[in-house]
Amino acid sequence: MALIVQKYGGTSVADIDRIKAVAMRAVETAKQGNKVIVVVSAMSGETDKLTAFAHDITGRPDEREMDMLLSSGERVTSSLMAMAIMELGYGSISLTGRQVGIITDSSHTKAMIESIGSDRLKEALDENKIPVVAGFQGINELSDVTTLGRGGSDTTAVAIAAALNADICEIYTDVEGVYTADPRLVPDTRKMERISYDEMLEMASLGAKVLHERAVEFAKKYNVPLVVRSSFNNAPGTLVTKEDGDMEKSVVTGVAHNKNQARITIMGIPDRPGIAAAIFDDIAKANLNVDMIVQNISVSDNATDLSFTVSKAESEKALEITQKVSDKLNAKGVDMNKDVAKVSIVGVGMQSHFGVAAQMFDVLSKNGINIMMISTSEIKVSCVIDVGQVDAAVQALHDSFELAKQ
Amino acid sequence: MALIVQKYGGTSVADIDRIKAVAMRAVETAKQGNKVIVVVSAMSGETDKLTAFAHDITGRPDEREMDMLLSSGERVTSSLMAMAIMELGYGSISLTGRQVGIITDSSHTKAMIESIGSDRLKEALDENKIPVVAGFQGINELSDVTTLGRGGSDTTAVAIAAALNADICEIYTDVEGVYTADPRLVPDTRKMERISYDEMLEMASLGAKVLHERAVEFAKKYNVPLVVRSSFNNAPGTLVTKEDGDMEKSVVTGVAHNKNQARITIMGIPDRPGIAAAIFDDIAKANLNVDMIVQNISVSDNATDLSFTVSKAESEKALEITQKVSDKLNAKGVDMNKDVAKVSIVGVGMQSHFGVAAQMFDVLSKNGINIMMISTSEIKVSCVIDVGQVDAAVQALHDSFELAKQ
Does the distance separating the beta carbons of B68 and A78 come in below 8 Å? Predict the structure, then answer.
């Protein structure tokens, strides 16, 4: 008998028929002799609808209030799902983040889980019920509702799987698994059978939207095996697990891209120590996530240019802060470009192979694609390019590294 | 400086424009030097939408899950309202039933408030904020979400006003106050300036939907002055307060009616002590509210008929239970009639006037209206009649007791 955590995303619970279908899947899993915990997202469209309400009221909604607002979506799904499971003759109970004991810090709209209880979940499982947890939410020490950010329900599921030492955490979505590149861009893309946490982490952070980055980090830390699969069919999905001898040894595992990027450049900063600290301190205090950072030393005029990328959603706020910092530093000015995107190659095999980055630059160059920024890690190479050239870049890299072949 | 609790119903917060208008009213009240607490219902239509979802899943939704589901509606309004108030430059914070410390019993879908905290509300008021409380909800001792039943937001508002010793509790709705009869039925109906708790209690329980019965009971018990008024204009509304010398001394204050009724009759019950107890014990255990009860003694065959009314929504469940009780008691059978309604006259003056009931029966008779059941209290007389004759009955009674005149 295994303990299985099943997380169902927004499209998997988009309407009452989908909720009934998912309830049936959970009950089937339980009837096969497993203990099952279900974690649900808001019905697709709900979060966007509520966000639009808030923006009709104010340009800058208070973040505590946004959490109160958005957390209602998952509560609705969890109670409807519990009813659907009961209607199939199986015991069930909906539980909010608070009721599960998910305690977070107070970073509203992007809170981090600090601890998680297991009493009510264990009690429900002991009573042969399928508990249905409202994903994406917890409470802070003031007992205020917090949310874990977009994709936070993945994190809820993995955190629960870790806390209860589950055998597996299944992430159900509307795609069949993790692909070597976005199937909408690359026709001959291939679904991976397995991928390591580290590779998945890079893929997730690079914009492969199938799994949330923080969920993968959590899974890696607590060694929770993840399966990404579709709730619309019975295809086996992709296993995300720790690297082992069986892991595919291809140099490059996949091509990821992210069009939701903006590049901000501070030009002509007087070159002295502490510049970067001055800039990114203020940005961090505003709770903005900076992705790539590139600094170019300019020998001629003893000044430097510094560029970084943020998500489009946070770009205006970041620009405002950067403008102030630029004035403080007596820099020449600030430039923002929202027509950029990031394309990346990922693979654990890269660590033991030379020339992978060079091959990437070569492919892009031969396709007439200009590289604006470069950033590398042990298992990935990312380039910021013009957003209009992303599709061509992904296809060319997929071909060049022969990802369609097993 | 007064402490004012303002409760806004579903139509008053039906969309974003309405929410902004209500926020402005709350801020205006605060700027006039008052402390203001806002209590909100779900946006109109939301509760019905969620209820329809549940009924698409199951014929008999679990009540704990219904509470989890429906309580989300008020949370949405409370956070949006807090944002709208902040957008006007005033401090605000949304608070759930739990965060306000509303502890209830465990009668899901119709829970009773057992205690109520004031720490977070006082803290918010001390910080010059307008707290916005999600109405209709609390938690029980298991920390599960409960709801107070339809109209429960009125109860939340009055309970908070009582706990904080507020100067007044304003109930904002889409009508301008309490009328001598339903304006949709009686063209020359008149808005009352004042009405006593007891009269309002009878009006509310008799189907005048403007205020929830339990809220009025609560207000009476803790002597909280209520004002019923419209959020769509600045008309003064109706004050609901304790009876005093200034109170209008008319014999009959208003005519109420309730079309949401069903009559159940058990026929031919062997006449022996304990019959009524046997029947209503089982019905009470099922948490059903019985309204009128009439038992007719039949001398001829040593058997009795017993009739009672319940709301249409609970009638099928009540019928099922009554059928079982009927079998157990060897009664002749059970009959249900859903085409009935109740029409009532209310007034504190009745206590010192004879012939009021007789005048009512006479008016109905002269209008060809057959009376099926009669029930009286010190300040009201109710008759169950055919639902098709309600409109005529209300108009005739309004005329006969000259309610259009001040």
Answer: yes
